[in-house]
């Protein structure tokens, strides 16, 4: 029996619950209409997206496509490290908490060195001081040598590094010979929030490799790994293939990117998601007993709800994560989140309090 197609209620668990945006679906279908084309990325769609990325970043970057963010991060970090190296990240970094040891596995053992990050307005962010302290903590042969700093933009706690903050971290890293990787699963939301040139937030600020998230921005599937320093991408194609991340029908991962990049749809999608988070934040502020932890900078809202509220919301079929110490809930907005969905959710929260 075929599944019934009815549109489900919009949820707030993650921005990867949404489907693909019409622009990426359009290019997906266009790529399909081209019939037989070369496989493994030797097609004109893939070449066009790589060219569009070079224009977007005003740089001769080397671009690869993989199925998901875990692979993008793990393989990018592995390309920057030897097995005896270490990678500095924040204690809430996705690479540390949500990738099942992928970065360590694909690098054959590079250790993640975790820095505690502050609460408050810079929640989830590394600082140059924290990075430097970890770099200088041990200099002896018995400890893995720090080789990479990885930052997440936007962070796992919904904050956004400013260009200056990124620059300060990359300066600290480079002063000690470390490379810098950016987990940009929500890079679009950060660029939309800052209103800056994507080049200013990446290579011009000292980032060597960006994992540019497409999935949460409106693609059906797929992330781009963007190397701003081509020396670092030597043999990366082999890594991607060995990891089982080389799509034979590559055009279906690459072509939808044209829909995001054309007319800056990626930014429009991100701006919309960010605006919906702002709307939810405003709605929550009007509900007694609900405490938003901070004003949203991008598309995540964090709030603490009175005891029992989350449970009651779940019983009514609402889905969201509660993983912040102290019972905070995370509500994510997506490219397609409708204002009415925000309002309905806020009404449900107010009733459940
Ligand atoms: C979603 C996400 C990823 C990618 O996760 P996958 O499920 O492997 O695609 C990576 N980093 C961050 C911060 C994320 O939120």
From TrEMBL:
Its cofactor is pyridoxal 5'-phosphate. Residues 11-302 form the Aromatic amino acid beta-eliminating lyase/threonine aldolase domain. Keywords: Lyase, Pyridoxal phosphate. Belongs to the threonine aldolase family. InterPro entries: ArAA_b-elim_lyase/Thr_aldolase, Low_specificity_L-TA_bact, PyrdxlP-dep_Trfase, PyrdxlP-dep_Trfase_major, PyrdxlP-dep_Trfase_small. One of its GO terms (biological process) is L-threonine catabolic process. It comes from Acidihalobacter ferrooxydans. It catalyses: L-threonine = acetaldehyde + glycine; L-allo-threonine = acetaldehyde + glycine. PANTHER family: L-THREONINE ALDOLASE-RELATED, LOW SPECIFICITY L-THREONINE ALDOLASE. Catalyzes the cleavage of L-allo-threonine and L-threonine to glycine and acetaldehyde. Homotetramer. Gene3D superfamilies: Aspartate Aminotransferase, domain 1, Type I PLP-dependent aspartate aminotransferase-like (Major domain). This is L-threonine aldolase. Its EC number is 4.1.2.48. One of its GO terms (molecular function) is L-allo-threonine aldolase activity. It is an enzyme of class 4 (lyase).
């Amino acid at each position: 029996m075929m599944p019934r197609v009815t549109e489900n209620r919009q949820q707030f668990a993650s921005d990867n619950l949404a489907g693909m945006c019409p622009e990426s679906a359009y290019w997906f279908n266009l790529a399909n209409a081209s019939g037989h084309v070369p496989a493994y990325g030797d097609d004109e769609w893939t070449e066009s997206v790589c060219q569009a990325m070079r224009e977007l970043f005003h740089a001769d970057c080397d671009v690869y496509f993989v199925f998901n963010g875990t692979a993008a991060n793990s393989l990018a970090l592995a390309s920057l490290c030897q097995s005896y190296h270490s990678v500095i990240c924040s204690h809430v970094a996705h690479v540390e908490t949500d990738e099942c040891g992928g970065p360590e596995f694909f690098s054959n053992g590079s250790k993640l060195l975790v820095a505690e990050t502050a609460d408050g307005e810079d929640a989830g962010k590394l600082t140059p001081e924290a990075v430097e302290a970890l770099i200088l903590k041990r200099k002896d042969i018995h400890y893995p040598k720090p080789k990479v700093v990885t930052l997440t933009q936007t962070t796992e706690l919904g904050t956004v590094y400013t260009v200056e903050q990124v620059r300060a971290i990359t300066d600290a890293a480079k002063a000690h010979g470390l490379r810098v990787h950016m987990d940009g699963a929500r890079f679009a939301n950060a660029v939309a929030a800052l209103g800056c040139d994507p080049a200013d937030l990446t290579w011009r600020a000292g980032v060597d490799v960006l994992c540019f998230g497409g999935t949460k921005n409106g693609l059906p599937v797929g992330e781009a790994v963007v190397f701003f320093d081509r020396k670092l991408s030597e043999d990366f194609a082999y890594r991607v293939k060995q990891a089982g991340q080389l799509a034979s029908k590559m055009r279906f991962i690459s072509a939808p990117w044209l829909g995001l990049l054309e007319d800056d749809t990626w930014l429009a999608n991100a701006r919309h998601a960010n605006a919906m988070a702002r709307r939810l934040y405003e709605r929550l502020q009007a509900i007694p007993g609900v405490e938003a932890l901070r004003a949203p900078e991008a598309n995540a809202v964090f709030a603490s709800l009175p005891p029992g509220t989350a449970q009651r919301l779940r019983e009514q079929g609402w889905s969201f994560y509660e993983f912040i110490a102290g019972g905070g809930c995370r509500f994510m907005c997506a490219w397609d989140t409708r204002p009415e969905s925000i309002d309905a959710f806020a009404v449900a929260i107010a009733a459940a309090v």
